[in-house]
């Protein structure tokens, strides 16, 4: 059975005091025990968040990392550095990293390799812009992002990969892909995986939906057979909203 996952991506939000307050509020929530819960805080809060969530079911993830093990990369953080403070999960390929920092599929493949070499778990993001969907190129684009970023991996390495489909046109816009649209793309993703590897692998990988998931729409989205959870942005900054999404299964 695939793992159900809800991960909160805090992006560049909250100072140290606000981060502590939010984690305290999250610790006071009751979460569905069958759902794996993660929060991706800004780099500067990661170590404190790991300490603050110790002994809870909340996993702490990084929002990004560099592909090199070390070196003259001012301002960057390596997989080993993350591991050294107890962070075992990293988000890679978020649409904002692709758009604002020009991260390519080739670069992301290097980052995935570095993460796996350090025994980390990867939440790999991908998805189409509005113009891709309007031109009906969205299926081809998603297939290409998966192929270029991940299809160099062997089957055993997929045990540490979670996929996160994010229609870029639905991130931070208030727009959301309909449950049917989400299911259609998630089914396509599994078909692409099955064609490259085998159906058993495709059926074992958790595929999250990321695109303006809220307490009001989470239940319907998560009810789709190929949707295994969500990568949550704005709603993850409110403990009650985030808990409501986790408990929407």
Measured by DSSP, the beta-strand proportion falls in 15-25%
Over the alpha carbons, how many angstroms does the gyration radius reach?
17 Å
Oligomer kind: single chain
**Number of E-type strands:** 8
The total count of helices amounts to 11
Content-based structural category = alpha/beta
Q: Give the overall silhouette.
A: globular
Largest sheet: 8 strands, parallel
Average pLDDT over all residues: 95
The N- to C-terminal Cα distance equals: 14 Å
As a percent range, the share of helical residues equals: 25-40%
Q: Spans of 5+ residues with little confidence (pLDDT < 50)?
A: none
How is the largest sheet built, in terms of strand order? Answer: 7-6-5-4-3-2-1-8
SSE ordering: EHEHEHEHHEHHEHHEHEH
Task: Describe it.
It is a single chain. With 249 residues, the protein is an alpha/beta fold. It is built from eleven helices and eight strands. An eight-stranded parallel β-sheet has the order 7-6-5-4-3-2-1-8. Helix 3 (79-84) links the parallel strand 3 and strand 4 (89-92). Helix 1 packs across helix 11 (239-246), helix 5 (105-117) crosses helix 7 and helix 7 (138-150) packs across helix 8. It is globular, with a radius of gyration of 17 Å. The model has no long low-confidence stretch (mean pLDDT 95).
């Amino acid at each position: 059975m695939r793992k159900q996952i809800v991960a909160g991506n805090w992006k560049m939000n909250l100072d140290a005091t606000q981060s502590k307050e939010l984690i305290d509020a999250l610790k006071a929530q009751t979460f569905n025990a069958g759902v794996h819960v993660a929060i991706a805080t800004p780099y500067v809060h990661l170590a404190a968040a790991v300490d603050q969530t110790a002994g809870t079911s909340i996993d702490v993830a990084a929002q990004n990392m560099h592909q090199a093990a070390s070196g003259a990369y001012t301002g960057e953080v390596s997989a080993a550095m993350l591991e050294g403070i107890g962070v075992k999960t990293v988000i890679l390929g978020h649409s904002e990293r692709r758009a604002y920092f020009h991260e390519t599929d080739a670069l992301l493949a290097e980052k995935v390799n570095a993460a796996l070499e350090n025994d980390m778990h990867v939440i790999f993001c991908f998805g189409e812009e509005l113009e891709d969907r309007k031109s009906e190129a969205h299926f081809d684009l998603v297939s290409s992002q998966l192929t270029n970023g991940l299809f160099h991996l062997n089957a055993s390495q997929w045990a540490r990969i979670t996929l996160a489909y994010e229609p870029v046109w639905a991130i931070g816009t208030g727009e959301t892909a309909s449950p049917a649209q989400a299911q259609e793309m998630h089914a396509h993703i599994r078909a692409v995986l099955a064609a490259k590897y085998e159906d058993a692998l495709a059926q074992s990988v958790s595929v999250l939906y990321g695109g303006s998931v809220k307490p009001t729409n989470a239940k319907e989205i998560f009810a789709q057979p190929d949707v295994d959870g969500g990568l949550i942005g704005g709603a993850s900054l409110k403990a009650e909203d985030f808990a409501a999404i986790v408990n929407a299964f």
